[in-house]
Amino acid sequence: MEVLPNDHVGRHVFFLGTFDRPVFECLRLFAGNSPVLWDIGANIGYMSIEFLNLLPNAHVLAIEPLPDIFAILEQNLRKISANRALCLNCAVSDRSGTARMQRVSNNSGGSFISIDGDEITTVSGDTLLDIAPTPTVIKIDVEGHEAQVLQGLQSVLSNPALRAVVFEHHTQTTMAEDVRKPLHDAGFKIFRIWKNAFTWALCDAERQNGRAGYYPTADFAAVRNPAVPGIKVLR
Question: Which pTM was predicted?
Answer without folding.
Answer: 0.94
